[in-house]
Amino acid sequence: MDKKQRILWGGATASSQYEGGFTDSKGLDTQDCRAYLPRTSNATEETRLLTKEKIEEAKRLDSGKYYPFRNGTKGFEHLEEDIEYLDELGLDLYRFSISWARLFPNGVEEVPSPEGVAYYDRVFNLLTEKKIKIFLTLNHYAMPIYLVEQYGGWKGRECIEHFMRFATFVFERWGNLVEYWLPFNEINAGYFSPFNGVGLLKGENGFDLSDVFQALHHQFVASAKTIKLAREMKLPGRFGSMIACFCYYPLTSRPEDNLKLVFEEQMNQWYCMDILSKGEYPYYAETFFENKNIVLNITDEDKKLLKENTCDFVSISFYTSSVITVEEADKTAGNLVVSTKNPYLKASEWGWQIDPVGLRTSLHKVYERYGKPVIVSENGLGARDVLTENGEVHDEYRIDYMKSYYEQAQLALEDGVPLEAYIAWGIIDIVSAGSCEMDKRYGVIYVDADNLGNGSYKRYKKDSFYWYKDFIQKYKEQNNG
Ligand code: BG6
To answer: Which residue in 72, 182, 366, 373 has the fewest CB atoms around it within 10 Å?
Structure first.
């Protein structure tokens, strides 16, 4: 790669966390069924473990619960204004996702909802007018609840066919406008957060691992099929795979800590990307399946599809690193997982350990393993912000965070990692995917709303907005536009 290649700077949202627009024409999806639970020790976990009863409750208008993803941060109503902000920031690219249930309310319809199509027409037109490059995630967690009830989420092979109808429509209508594609957000989340990732409901005994890995397999096949179709249609964009990346450290130099790290890293982090990027199941999977009594249905045709349709680039979300030990040790929260505390790192209020150097390390590891262009498709600081009486937000903690991570990203590029783009997560405040709350904000644009949906939903530029704008401008000047 040409070392002078510059990083494209972006911002991202996800449909369920941002849009709202819970109209009659939009189907109920998995995220719409997650109620806000006041923060207690296990609220975050609870909101990710949905059962049949909770879904039934969510369908009743008198449940008395608040379902924050039905409001998001009202992007549906604020779209024009929000895209003006992205343009003012000088973003090179915007990552967003399409709500499957807004286009196909139950996921099984033959034709999409006209209202859904009209909304996304507006999104694509506005971004194209502003010349902001498009990075599109086809599926960011939310799936029509009908598919969960009918087929058990992604454990049902039928979901592949329904997903392909959705993907085909998106390709035909907007396919020429997209530069970067991701069939699935953080695909490894299906393993450690099966409701969010693959639409599995929690049974009496938790999750059956065969279901989890079968569901993931179906997502792999769907991913390969979308790539195949896009290539047949000669779409101009490139396709990626994405994992939540954790940069594992052993707590001590004890050999057993390090060995445990290898196993955890394989299954938690690399497994999905190994398959999507290399086109076959990795050597370690068979033993893992045997040890856990996991039985999968993988056809020869599936294997062929995976082999022939690998991704063009690899992307990671990177927020926090993880520590592994065979001993009992103090724990802290992380992105959808719990980690051992790292004595060398500070953590956010939510316990996510802040590790910019870990990002540089991870960029090397990802490139070394796959040898494909790399994108940081998500990164940011989830923090509590205060809106002052004059409509300002002084978030110097976020600026410090961004500076430190962006510096390490640029160093990785100088080291020789072909880092193509860096995308700031939740560029406009959105509902937290992990804990269903508004208190945990990532944006450089503040949205006036609270955990229960009270507020004007008016937008305000935070101090970090001005910092990011200035950073992008200077970066472009120094790196030939
Ligand atoms: C990633 C998801 O896991 O992390 C996003 O792709 C999510 O959807 C982000 O918002 C941050 O997590 P959280 O729980 O703070 O919203």
So the answer is: 373
C-alpha span between 451 and 440 (Å, rounded): 9
What is the fold, at CATH topology level, of the domain defined by 8-478? TIM Barrel (3.20.20)
3-state SS class at 344:
coil
Catalytic residue flag (residue 57): no
Asked if 186 is an active-site residue, the reply is yes
Atom of ligand 1 nearest to the CA of 141: 8
Ligand 1 centroid, distance to 337 Cα (angstroms) = 12
Which atom of ligand 1 is least distant from the CA of 435?
A: 14
Q: Which two tokens stand for residue 181?
A: 């594609």
Rounded Cα gap, residues 481 and 476, in angstroms: 4
In the chain, where the domains are located: 8-478
**Residue-by-residue pLDDT tens, the chain, 481 positions:** 555 689 999 999 999 999 999 999 999 999 999 999 887 656 667 767 888 999 999 999 788 899 999 999 999 999 999 999 999 999 999 999 999 999 999 999 999 999 999 999 999 999 999 999 999 999 999 999 999 999 999 999 999 999 999 999 999 999 999 999 999 999 999 998 999 999 999 888 889 999 999 999 999 999 999 999 999 999 999 999 999 999 999 999 999 999 999 999 999 999 999 999 999 999 999 999 999 999 999 999 999 999 999 999 999 999 999 999 999 888 887 777 788 999 999 999 999 999 999 999 999 999 999 999 999 999 999 999 999 999 999 999 999 999 999 999 999 999 999 999 999 999 999 999 998 999 999 999 999 999 999 999 999 999 999 999 999 999 999 997 7
**CB neighbours of 378 closer than 8 A, spacing ≥ 6?**
12, 186, 316, 317, 318, 319, 423, 425
Decide the pairing of beta strands 338-340 and 331-333: antiparallel
Kindly report the protein residue whose alpha carbon is nearest to atom 7 of ligand 1: 433
State the closest ligand 1 atom to the C-alpha of 185, by its place in the atom list counted from 1. 6
Q: What dihedral angle (degrees, nearest 10) is formed by the CA atoms of 196, 199, 201, 207?
A: -80
Residue located nearest, by CA, to atom 4 of ligand 1: 335
CA of 39 to the centre of ligand 1 (A): 17
Residues with CB under 6 A from ligand 1: 14, 17, 185-186, 244, 317, 335-336, 378, 382, 425, 432-435, 440
